[in-house]
Amino acid sequence: MTEEAGIAIGDGIATITLDNPPVNALGAGLRGALMTALGAALHDPGVQVIVLTAAGRTWPAGADIREFGRPPEAPSLPELCQAVAGSAKPVIAALHGMVLGGGLELALAARVRLAEPGTELGLPEVTLGILPGAGGTQRLPRLIGAKRALGLMLSGLPIGAARAEELGLVDAVTEGGSAAAAERLARAYLAGEAELPEVEEQRRRVDPGAWLLAVAAARSGLGDPQLPAPGRIIDCVEAALLLPEDEGFAFERAAFEDLVATSEAAALRHAFLAERRAAKQPDLAHVKPREIHNVGVVGGGLMGAGIATALLGAGCSVTLVERDGEALAAGLARVATHHERAVAKGRLSPEAREAEWARLAGATGLAALAGSDLVIEAAYEDEAVKAGIFAELDRVARPGAVLATNTSYLDVNRIAAATARPGDVIGLHFFSPVQAMRLVEVVVGAETAPDVIASAFALARRIGKVAVRAGVCDGFIGNRILTAYRTAADFLLEDGASPYEIDRAMVAWGFPAGPYQVLDMAGLDISWARRRRLAATRDPARRYVAIGDRLCEAGRLGRKAGKGYYLYPERAWQGVEDPDVLALIAAEREARGIVAREVTAAEIQDRVLAAMANEGARILEEGIAARPSDIDLVMLLGYGFPRWRGGPMLAADQAGLLALRKRLVDYAREEEAFWRPAALWEELIKNGRKFADLND
Ligand code: T1G
Questions:
Q1: For position 213, what pLDDT does the model report?
Q2: Cβ atoms 331, 320 nearer than 8 A
Q3: Which of 105, 295, 496, 662 could form a disulfide with 134 if both were Cys (CB 3.0 to 4.6 A apart)?
Q4: What does the mean pLDDT of the chain come to?
């Protein structure tokens, strides 16, 4: 890592170039180098103007996230920004790439900001559970007004260079490179041919009434009480108006230090880094992916059409195959609908839609896929159906084609065994709706070739998805943990809790919906079919809760049937509690000789977390997942696990492994097979380690 700040001096101009690949994160090394270079420029009598620019693909994209939680190293970013803002010689910041977080705060400290076309600027700190802690909450409102400043900081979303110029966040969008433009401005300024904006001008523009109105409006719009950062951002913006400048900066720093130490912030940083860590596949570092341009998609249903649309958006040519003309027309119409919606939302231009549509073909036989580089099967979730398709693909697909199944829990090895080329077979488990869900579980079979795995990761990146590697087992990572979650919930249901208490408890814990609300939305018949599929092999020694079966037998298949665990009057979207369900559950308890007991929300939350973390520990022991943060990422991106809790493995670390393992031991006395703690708990505890220590 270079972490340099090179300086070039000539004609009265000092040009400082930041260089810390890949995103010029403002780590301690770069901060120190910049402070040194700034000092040299300030003390050099031959320098009258300073140009600050960055090498590589972007101006600093923020503070170095990996430094948080560690002892701070001088100079701090606020000190650095203060040094730039206090410079006796004007500083011109030449911006390009992603000017984010501390990077934007550094730019705000400069006298002038010039941005290249295509530059994006934002303060995403709130997405990390923190706030702009290097002067952003103090300087930005003075520059663009409190209302707009709060909008940027509370959304965390970037804006483009043109919008930034409209707001006054940048002084100009340059023609071509911003470094050259900055040098031209410096020369014109030195020649007395150009003025630079005065910082004091900005202060005079402050309208206290509008400022306080913006603060009050932002406070009234605060959402999730579980996340403190938004409220603290608003407090800092208020302080920027009401406190003297130095006290305002101190107020912001104190708020930043409070937030960075919270468990929510630690979890959100963990989620950010987990997403980047999942892409690291050491065994594939030198493996070349296969070229993929023409893709066949078998099945034009909800998943197949979504997958086809994602592939078209990434520039692939797609042949959609269905069993007959009617089904094919329906599949193509689904893709057309995705396109129409994207155009309506401004996410796709009409021209781009035409170009994508031109790359889409339809067929009613697999022979049309003879030239495909990749085939993704998204047919009915039945092993025999999939095996039949793969057997035919084996006959028609060209040698070297990658053959992928979108199965959500079937055995990829058994599907591969239907072909003579198991090395070419892999699982690509997309999530529904494909256009909204970023997660893909890459399910690696026993014989899957390394370059096929590499091809899957390369394709996922290309279509804007986050790939997580999984081994073959029932449910891979996500569905296996979901099954554990639902089993723990069903035990509680049979023991005495109502489905409504369980759903409320899990929503209070941070899930967008409870397990029974989700089941009603998805349809109870899907998991019922799976239970019946596994019935013959079910271990009679294991506790089995049949309440879901009783509901299905009574025709209560979920929202689509107008009733499931909830009642849906006139097919209402939101279900209502149904006393008939409580009666059905009571009857089932009586049949099982169970006397209902009081179950608290805390016990529900504790048991669900213990069940998920224990299943995660087993998944790690079996090598189904490479690292705990991969498991967390699957649950965060695919199953609505609250991001500010970081996933089941991080939540287990934060709850304390000793306490959690003790709970598992206690629960195991009721039902040993399900609750028996994985051996990994003992191994971590005795070595004083956490799951996080297993994240390479
Ligand atoms: N710190 C450390 N490493 C970072 C980083 C950061 N801020 N941003 C990216 N990386 C690493 C990333 O882990 C990956 O590493 C590589 O760079 C490429 O990233 C005081 C407190 C800039 C839009 O939140 O949004 O400033 O895997 O794969 O898809 O107020 O990175 O190669 O080893 O994501 O092209 C605020 C976070 C920080 C921006 C580029 N800034 N970064 O996306 O590449 S808090 C952010 C991003 C702060 C101040 C506060 C994206 C990107 P590796 P990548 P990308």
A1: 95
A2: yes
A3: 105
A4: 94
Question: Cα 183–188–194 angle (5° rounding)?
Answer: 120
Q: What is the pLDDT of residues 324-341, one digit of tens each?
A: 999 999 999 999 999 999
Q: Which atom belonging to ligand 1 lies closest to the Cα atom of 277?
A: 27
pLDDT > 60? residue 219: yes
**Residue 686 Cα distances to 158, 402, 628, 653, 679, angstroms:** 45, 44, 18, 14, 11
3-state secondary structure 445-481: CCCCCHHHHHHHHHHHHHCCCEEEEECCCCCCCHHHH
Q: Give me ligand 1 centre to Cα 23, in Å.
A: 7
Cα of 72 from ligand 1 centre, angstroms: 19
Q: Which residues of 495-526 are buried (b: 16+ CB within 10 A; e: fewer)?
A: bebbbbbbbebbeebbbeebbbbbbbeebbee
Which one-letter DSSP state was computed for residue 673? H
In this structure, are strands 425-430 and 439-443 parallel, antiparallel, or unpaired?
antiparallel
**ipTM field:** 0.97
Q: What share of the chain is helix, strand, coil (3-state, %, to 5)?
A: 55, 10, 35
45-63: per-residue pLDDT in tens?
Answer: 999 999 999 999 999 999 9
The best mutation among 23, 67, 127 to test binding of ligand 1, ranked by most ligand atoms within 8 Å of the C-beta, falls on 23
Task: Using alpha carbons, select from 653, 645, 646 the residue that is nearest to residue 617.
Answer: 653
CB burial of residue 29 (10 Å; 0-12, 13-18, 19+): middle
Provide residues with CB under 6 Å of ligand 1.
22-23, 25, 61-66, 77, 98, 100-102, 105, 124-125, 128, 130, 132-134, 136, 276
Residue 696 has pLDDT above 90, yes or no: no
Catalytic residue positions, numbered:
105, 125
Per-residue pLDDT band at 224 (split at 50, 70, 90): low
| H or E element at residue 276 | helix 263-277
Q: Considering Cα of 152, then 69, then 35, then 244, what sign does the dihedral take? A: positive
- Per-residue DSSP letter, 290: P
Q: Give tens-digit pLDDT for 194-210.
A: 999 876 666 666 789 99
Distance CA 455, CA 466 (A): 14
Coil, strand, or helix at residue 51?
strand
